[in-house]
Specification:
Blueprint (H helix, E strand, L loop, with lengths): L6 E2 L5 E2 L3 E7 L1 H6 L1 E12 L18 E2 L8 E8 L2 E8 L8 E2 L14 E12 L8 E4 L14 E7 L8 E3 L2 E9 H6 L2 E5 L5 E5 L11 E4 L5 E2 L2 E5 L2 E8 L6 H10 L12 E2 L7 H8 L1 H17 L12 E2 L4
Length: about 325
Amino acid sequence: MFGGGDRRERGGPKRGKDIEHVLEIPLADLYTGKKKKMKVNRKIICSECEGSGSNKGKGTSVDTKCKGCDGNGRVFKTLRQGNAIYQTQAVCDTCQGKCFVIPESDKCATCKGEKVVKDPKIYTLEIEKGMKHGDTITFYGEADQYPGVITGDLIFHLDRKKGEDSPFKREGNDLSCTQNITLIEALTGFKILLTHLDGRKICVTSQPNEVVSPGETLRIPDQGFSIKNRPDSYGDLYITFNIIFPKTLTADQSRQLKAIFPHSETKPDPAAEVVFASKITEQQQRQRANPRAREEHHQSRTGEAYDDDEGMHHGTAHTTSCQQQ
C-alpha cells in the first residue's frame, strides 16, 4: 500500500516487502499513551517442508523451470486494437511469476507447494505518550517470510481517527480550542469547565478585573499536549473566545450601560439625515456572498423605486433631521 517493494541488500540476498498498515488513533490515546493489540495474518516458511514446497523430505527441492514463461516469470501478450497491434508483458499464469513450478504429485501436503503458510499473530503496539499522527511503530523482520529472502518489517502508521469530534486541536506540543462565553462573562469574569483529553475536569477562570475581547486568545500553561520521552512535561493550552452578545436591550438596560461605561456620542448636526441600520437576514448574507445574486437584487430594488410616480420621492419619504437633544 505504501510502495515498499523488494530491495536487494548490498552483496546479499533480496529483501522482501514490508507489510504496512494504517492505524487510526484518537487524540486522547496519543495524549495518555496506550497499548493496543492487533492481529496480523502474515506468512511464514512451512515447517513441514522447510520452505522447499516438496513432499520428498525436509529441505528437498523439486523446483522445475516453468515451461509457460521459460523461467522468466513474465510472458508477452499481443493485443490488437483496430489496425494497431500492441505487445505487453504480464505475470505468467502458470507459475504466478515465481519462474519455477512443483509437480502436483510432489507438492507438500501442508503448504500445497507454496513453501509458506499463513500464521495469524497478535502484536502489542506500545503507543507512547506524546506520539504524533504520522509516527510509525515498527516490528523489524516480522513481515511475510519466503525462502532465500530477507524478511521485511511490519510497520504501523498512526493516523487521525475519522469522525473524531474532539474540541481540542494539536499544534506541536500545544493544544488549542474555542469557547463561547456571554458578554457579561467577558466583562466581569468567567469560569468554564473543560474535560481534558485524559478525562480530568479543569476549571478555567479569568484573571481578576480582566476583560476578554471577541476573538482574543488566552494561554493556560502546562495544560497542553504531553511531550514524548518527557512524561512530566506538557505544552500549553490556548483558548480562543467567542463572545455571545445579547440580541436586544431594553431602554433601561441601555441607560444603565451608558451610565457605567464611559463613551462619547457623535455631536448632532441638524442638517444631517437620519438613517437606521438593521441586521441582515441569512438570505441577504448569502446574496452578499454571491455577486450575481447581489447585482440582481440591486436591479430589482432600482426598478421598484422608479415605478413610483414621484420618481425618487418614495426613497426619501421617511427621512428626518437629526435634532439637537
